[in-house]
Amino acid sequence: MCLAVPGKVMEVDGDEALIDFGGVTRKANISLVEASEGEYVIVHAGYAIQKLDEKEAKESLDAWEEIMELGSQM
Amino acid sequence: MKSEMDNFKFRNKKTAERIVKKINEADVEMSFMHVCGTHQDTLVRFGLEQMLNEAGITIRQGPGCPVCVTTPREIEEVLVLAREGITITAYGDMINVPGEKSSLSKARREGAKVKVVYSVDDAVKIAKKIAEPVVFMSVGFETTTPSIASMIKKGAPQNFFILPCHRLVPPALKAIMEMGEIKLDGLIEPGHVSTIIGMEPYIPLSKKYGIPQVIAGFEPLDLLMGIYMLIRQVKEGRADVENEYTRVVRREGNPKALQVMYEVFEPVDIQWRGFPTIPGSGLKIREKYIDHDAREEFKDILEPLKEKDFGERKGCLCGEVLRALKEPEDCPLFGKRCTPKNPMGPCMVSREGGCNIRYRFSPHPVGESA
Question: What ipTM was estimated for this complex?
């Protein structure tokens, strides 16, 4: 039910946008986020519910390494 | 071919092995609960459940499936409307959930106008094509509700009504902590509910009950890391709210979504399947938008249900499964009289239900195939 899928905004037309889900494109409502072309969003039941942070995604794994290093002392 | 989306797929095997090794090294016996069908799906689909069990970690599934926690009364309400000839729209999972005697799919076979939709927008499109009333059975946690609110606020057609069956997650977590039926060392919080509500609503739980919490995403690495973060909190004697799913969840959630949700809806006490009434855990339509409330529009039709009591199907342990007191296999109906093709309770119907997931990924399903 709370499944949400990441996709890239291709075209914006008012509240609607064409989203590329890694090859498959589909329209979604983007009225709950302020997304523009080229940005990534996460879509649930036809609505984008948040923008995805690409930088954060890339940095997450480095941050985890740090957490695990610190955890070695626990 | 490497897709641009790969940056958001957290499935690297080496990283997974490294986290599992760290969990093993922690050498603990702990029990955590999540409240999300999508988490359960990842845990079972990728075999994490067993891997974690071997490392001393038990994961329990709480009431994390909006379809499953919808009460027999709500299902009876929509069935009564369907039998009156009103067009009903609902998500696919919802139509097979058995009420006391029937389900929407059974009603459809008997001639009722029941249509499956993917989103509230699809339901509105149906309403725009016909003059007669269309009712949308509106289930969902905080992840889903803003889309419904947004549609109503924008101005839905006059013949479009929703039957609100929404639930809010934090009050249910509080109820579980208050009931104290199971010993838990930490909570894995649902990533997409948290995408909307942010981190703040969980803080009172950690403060009052001293329970560590981690918001986690849905890829296998997200869950493993979330669990590792919980173990670390317990070992360090902390009870904080941490966020593993930083690529999606912001501290403040999605303020725009929250704003529209609370502009259209207000909290109300509501029962959850398997639970008594949980204060402030439901949502009703505010006076301003009452013209789209099916309970208001069709109150004469629904009136006779008010005094009625609705029970669970005999033998169905859905309530206990939802309270994380029982495993699907503990139910005498599981895989025998109750299968995805012939579900006795909602936990076997919904693809997010604990019984359905366990059945689908079971190596030796009993009886029919999933």
Answer: 0.89
